[in-house]
Amino acid sequence: MIRVRYTLKESRIVAVTDSYDAVKEAVMALRKHRRLLEAYIKRHPVFLRSLEPVEVGDDAPEAAKRMAEAAFKAGVGPMAAVAGALADLAVEAMLAKTKVAVVENGGEVSANSKKPVTVGILAGRSSLSGKLAFQLSRADMPLGVGTSSGTVGHALSFGVADAATVVADDATLADAAATAVGNAVKGEDPEKAVQAGLEVAEVIEGVRGALVIMGEYAGIVGKLPKIVRVKGNLMEAVKDMEDYLPPKIM
Q1: In the chain, what are the domains?
Q2: What is the pLDDT of residues 176-202, one digit of tens each?
Q3: How far, in Å, CA of 205 to CA of 43, rounded?
Q4: What is the C-alpha separation between 171 and 4, in angstroms, rounded?
């Protein structure tokens, strides 16, 4: 299996596949869809700033349309789904060259693979961070995994969850829904805070399940992939990756 990193402005993707041609497709898709999205945002800056769902016009590119749809389902601003949307579009492009396509973009994962995939769960300060993972079978895919945290990372969250992880039909929705779930995890009582997040996950159309971690307390809801314990150091397992350098023609 090939694990390749590529960075384009705020997008930092890791592509996992069995084909370098598929990696190239993922990078080209990321470049294309970011460019179109940036141009749309220049024409419609409210799309970037809004913390609530926003209607998009006929001139909206595919990424913006997907983000807007997910935002309405989750009740958040469309940019809450940007990383997941770009991951989905990259995976879809990869499928022209392979049947093993996984893209992680800033913690959001889109997966469509004939081979099993393991997705580790990082949860900030919690002792559970890096100790648990989803083991995705072929029957689980395609799917998306999104995580929001109020204690780690640069993404905006109004909650205090160490990890609000959502599994959905695609990464665009998982990303938006994870933000909504994470925003609901508030208060000093971890049991009540986690439960509040899980209740939000239950009512978002397209969400399969959620795992919420706050400190040493964790709760789950819905139908999640198999959860397994991680053996060894999760970060050590993924640190040896190639960096993708696109050809000049791109």
Answers
A1: 2-238 (3.10.520.10)
A2: 999 999 999 998 898 999 999 999 999
A3: 30
A4: 19
